[in-house]
């Protein structure tokens, strides 16, 4: 399954639309306004009035950049940035999965404990706002993979600022 994430550029808060392979809006991610740390809520479809199905929340009392990931009211994992100087390396605490990425932070691969690919995350070059393509392997929850991809974007955003 493929999902496409596109950030809206001219918005007071982070706002992403997530489409499937057919161009249908599947999810919407909206950042909270005036909060300490970054907070993203993921909604099914385009209805942001209902309860979120996923959340990404920055943990402020941490030595490194850390985001908590919640899917369907269940805590899944913490995305933690490893302390490195030249690369963007992350680990997931709470899942037996790992993330491998490149030096320029444009391509990431989510792997299980046997090094099987769960998701490939590619960031588009030269676009207004952040744009990503997620290629999710069969048998894995797309919402969990989406929330992990959004947590990677949040970590990159915090590092840039």
Main sheet summary: 12 strands, antiparallel
Question: Which ranges are low-confidence, i.e. pLDDT below 50, for 5 or more consecutive residues?
Answer: none
Per CATH, the superfamily is Tubby Protein, Chain A
Helix segment tally: 1
- Which architecture per CATH? Alpha-Beta Barrel
* Fraction of residues in helix: 10-25%
The SSE string, one letter per element, is EEEEEEEEEEEEH
Mean pLDDT: 86
CATH class: Alpha Beta
Helical/strand content category: mainly beta
Strands ordered across the widest β-sheet? 8-7-6-5-4-3-2-1-12-11-10-9
Distance between the termini: 32 Å
Rg, rounded, reads: 15 Å
Question: Strand portion, in percent?
Answer: 35-45%
Tally the beta strands.
12
The best one-word shape is globular
CATH fold field value: Tubby Protein, Chain A
Task: Write down the domain tally.
Answer: 1
Question: Which key terms come to mind for this protein?
Answer:
mainly beta, 1 helix, Tubby Protein, Chain A, 12% helix, 12-stranded antiparallel sheet, single chain, 161 residues, globular
Question: How would you describe this protein?
Answer:
The structure is a single chain. The chain has 161 residues and is mainly β. It has a twelve-stranded antiparallel sheet with strand order 8-7-6-5-4-3-2-1-12-11-10-9, covered by helices on one side. 12% of the residues lie in helices and 43% in strands.
């Amino acid at each position: 399954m493929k999902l496409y994430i596109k950030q809206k550029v001219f918005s007071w808060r982070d706002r992403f639309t997530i489409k499937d392979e057919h161009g249908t809006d599947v999810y919407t991610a909206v950042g909270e306004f005036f909060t300490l740390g970054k907070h993203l809520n993921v909604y099914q479809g385009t209805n942001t009035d209902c309860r979120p199905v996923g959340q990404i929340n920055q943990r402020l009392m941490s030595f490194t950049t850390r985001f908590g990931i919640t899917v369907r009211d269940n805590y899944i994992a913490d995305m933690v940035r490893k302390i490195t100087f030249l690369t963007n390396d992350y680990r997931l605490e709470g899942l037996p999965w790992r993330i491998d990425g490149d030096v320029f932070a444009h391509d990431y691969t989510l792997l299980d404990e046997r090094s099987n690919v769960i998701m490939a995350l590619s960031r588009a070059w030269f676009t207004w706002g952040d744009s990503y393509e997620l290629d999710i392997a069969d048998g894995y929850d797309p919402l969990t993979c989406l929330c992990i991809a959004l947590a990677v974007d949040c970590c990159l955003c915090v590092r840039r600022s």
